[in-house]
Write the structure tokens for this entry.
Amino acid sequence: MFLQAAKKDEERRFVEILAKELDAFPPGKLIDSESPDFLVATSEGVIGIEVTKIHHANEPRQQESECRSLVDAACRLCESESTIPLEVKVHFGGSTQFNKRIRDKFARILANLILTNIPQPDSWISLENNWENPSLFPHEIAGLSIIRLSAFRRNFWSVPSAGFFQEDFAPKIEAIIATKGQAIRTYKTGCIERWLLIVAEGNSASTFFALRQRPFNVRTAPPLIESSFSKHFGDRFGN
């Protein structure tokens, strides 16, 4: 139930951002619904809005998730051996391939790197791999930064991502529109228009799409990709 409510709140936030960006967005109240996700009442009738998120193929997403799991494991190791809260940002190599089988090994190495390089109070350090000692500083880890502030009450560990914007993503968009279009017949409410909002959110590489281009732009009124939806919209929201 909590996850469903969080997902709904997230979708509502996306639509509210679209409403601010789009001058033609109707002024009516945004009503939670299912199939479609939201309804907006206008003087002519009800507009239905469906919201979905777009990602690259599963492999980049899986590696992002595995990197986060590895860093979380290293953080837990440090918390068991040190009471000093830190902000840590870990930068992995571009071709890094982690999995659950080797996670504990690299988590231990990463934790050791942090524990042996804790900065002085209210200061920070940046470590870059010199590629000379892979047993202590594995080639899979390109670098990291460690911040220690007296105001910290808990650890903040993260994995900043880097990637290229995918510009030739029309087939991906067409597949999403086709899939969502098949669900229109299940809509429980008669709508005078049906809108589809496709979102790429976050700073992970799997969400790097250049959405502000033809044939997909929040300022485009009719869809340029043929479908059962009246309008298509797309945007990218960073964290």
